[in-house]
Amino acid sequence: MTALSDADKTYLNERGYEYEEAASDGHAGVVIKRRPLPTDRFHEAEADVLIILPPRYPLVPPDMFYLLPWVRLKVNNVFPRAANQPFSFGGQKWQRWSRHEKDWRPGVDGIWTMLKRVEHALEIAA
Known about the structure:
By secondary structure, the protein is of the alpha+beta class. It has one domain (about 5-125). The protein has helices at about 5-15, 110-125; strands spanning about 20-25, 25-35, 45-55, 65-70, 85-90, 90-95.
């Protein structure tokens, strides 16, 4: 099941992302492998990032993202806000980060947009 567009694949390949397309329980997604995490925020240095791609992607935006391993904030050792629920995918329980898209621009946005949103969410995690 291929859900990434050619533009998405080009973007990921040109920037050296290690990724894999995956499917589980009727969901298509992309796993960004070993994404570095902000060292001042989390105990973990890196995590895999799962982005579920909806059936009409890229006309329809991805909704949330998921991490493995689960991460906690360094400052107080708790899960970040709205990031404490599991999501089953590929036989594993991913940490769901409930972040919802409101400003998706069909025909303009792609995986690069979602990765910027993931980066931002990780940088401001509280």
